[in-house]
Amino acid sequence: MTAGTYKPWGKLDIARRVGADIPEGWYVNLGIGLPTLVADHIPEDREVVFHSENGILGMGPVPAPDEVDTWLVNAGKENVTLVPGAALFHHADSFAMIRGGHLDLCVLGAYEVAQNGDLANWTTSLNDRVPAVGGAMDLSAGVRNVWIMTTHTTKDGQPKLVERCGYPLTAGKAVTRVYSDLAVLDVTAQGFVVADMVEGLTRDELQKLTAAPLHYA
Amino acid sequence: MIDKQLEDVAQALSGIADGASVLVGGFGAVGQPNVLLDALGEMGVRNLTVIANNAGFEPDIGLGRLIGRGCVSKIICSFPRGSSTFDTFYKAGKIELEVVPQGTLAERIRAGGAGIPAFYTPTGVGTQLAAGKETRTFGERDYLLEHGLTADIALIEAWEADRWGNLTFRGSGRNFNPIMAMAGRLTIVQAQHVVPLGSILPNDVVTPGIFVDRVVHVPCGDPPIAKVATAQGGTK
Fold first, then answer.
1. ipTM computed for the complex
2. How far separated are the first and last CA of chain A, in Å rounded?
């Protein structure tokens, strides 16, 4: 197949794929940005509980403008709702859930993911701006499954999936799966293993956009 | 009779000196002791070390305003973004910054208040934030040594308080407040409601009064509406 005959998955396509892969009963933390889209794409018949770093289990949908409870915000400081069964708690308990391995999954964004699962997603430089880490290091070090939602390359076309991260690490050997706009890849002892890819994309093309060797199950 | 309630905010803050370390509760617009922070700024104290999750938000409110008045010389926080005042002071070299992962910050405060001087955590291993910290291997995994954190003062916002200092919180207003109340040598609470002793049921007390030194009634109302929500949603 010739180049240019494939269409990358859109943000909602990726969110739908991630949502479809989250099993019934999982406790899940969604990172700020792209991952928040996943909340709206959990299959109807599945109960999944969303966690927020600032002390919420059981976050619900975005409130209607006239139903906002300003006493409830999520980790992105946006107003949210609670579902029946929700629980509120303090920050140390919230991170005990994260660090203690009680959460099943977090879905995060990334600047780079290395083939051994190293994650760089908190700062792109040592000096040029105010460093701010939030809960990213706790989530990536503490949660059992760390899935990444990202474009496969940067806006400049540079691969984000690499042999070794160039940007400062958030956590080592943390990522278990990557959902890019071109492929779904598992991070294994062998490296990146492609589980699925965009229709019309060839293995050669995908490899050219990836700075680490790709494997196929 | 134990009565931790004080008449006004000025009395509640009396004795806070230059150079004090100050824990400040709150996350987003919720649970922020903004009235205490504003009054602290008006007192003109200098060289405060503030420990909080963020470095303030709006320039005219709370921590942002305290920084803008030049009262803060160092901030220990996890996410100093979204504060134009902090950015200005930081770029001008007028404020020192220590960035701590959010969960490590919470646990350092919890540990400090619980009499635990230090602990090992998996968070931050192999990162820039591990620089200079002891690493130890337990089982197959490496962990960083992090130190407990206490402070001269804790500034707390609560929903209800009684004269013994028992506290409840509302919504996501709990956040750092209960653990900071434990870690402050002088814990000062601004409470939306001050209620008679016994009206908070024992099982509903979130922060027992033993952790609280001063209470002041500040019925400041609901937090402002947050920025427009995007697609954050929840359980179907």
1. 0.95
2. 21
